[in-house]
Design goal:
Layout lengths: L3 H9 L7 H7 L2 E6 L7 H6 L18 H9 L6 E3 L11 E2 L14 E2 L1 H12 L7 E6 L2 H5 L4 H16 L5 E5 L14 H28 L2 E5 L1 H10 L8 E5 H6 L5 H4 L2 E3 L7 H15 L2
Parallel strand pairs: 1-2, 1-5, 5-6, 6-7, 8-9
Antiparallel strand pairs: 3-4
Length: 292
Amino acid sequence: MFRTTRIVLLAAAVFVVTAAGQLHAQYSRVVVFGDSLCDTGNSFAATGIPPAPYYSEGRFSNGPIWIDFLQQQMGLSDAQLLNFAVGGSSTGFGFKEPPEGIFETPPGTLIPTVGEQIGIYQLVSGGVSDPDQLTILWAGSNDLFTYNLPASVVNNIEQHVRDLAATGADEFLIPGISPIGSTPSLRWTFEGFILNYFARQTNRKLNRRLNALEDELGITIHRLDTYTLTVLATLFPSHFGLTNTTNSALDDIADGLITPAEGATYLYWDIIHPTSIVHQTLAAAAIDVLTD
């Protein structure tokens, strides 16, 4: 867990990331698996979701997301970033219908799970990972949104790590589940309280399982405590450059209450996804844990 003072200071100094330079030399490439929080355009290329101009360049936000910031701060070329994440994806295997939410998808749309993303990666890579790569895996929120139990999410992520380790991947960054029940879509609802409980349980169980995998497989798994980070952003918004931590910026823009520029300082861009300024803080926090 992050110490409160450390994370608040990190948010205040998000533009000064002195550790990024050493990461550029440390990793030959970054390989990404996950959902809309990591998707840098795969969903948009396949379905046109999320739509412009409400979303920026196929990102589920108003600007660059944390993967973009990581790439920039680490000095990686496009060829050094392999991103298989797809918006709406869940953990597990096979193809699934997109979760119900804010987007209408074409009839018959099926979304590859993380297991399928890994399968595509294995085909592209010939089943061999680069020994100096960083593997990012962030998923599970969509599982919980559809009321899959924490144990199921943790079991799936364990298998994904095992499958990737079998290709030679030996260094991972795995963020936890954020307090998804506190998003504008569910804030102060019974379902929201349940989902926050599920998120906390998932994070606790996952940390124990990842500890065991590190010992068994001889790999390194960095953790990013996005639950605590989100709670702190809610409690100390000014330290994170935020002016609103409860509403959807898009909804307030549509109602004529704010301008898009003012919406950029919200915690949430829509009823689920964070703004680009939040993603920038996530990237800074990620670099912090990678160099800790």
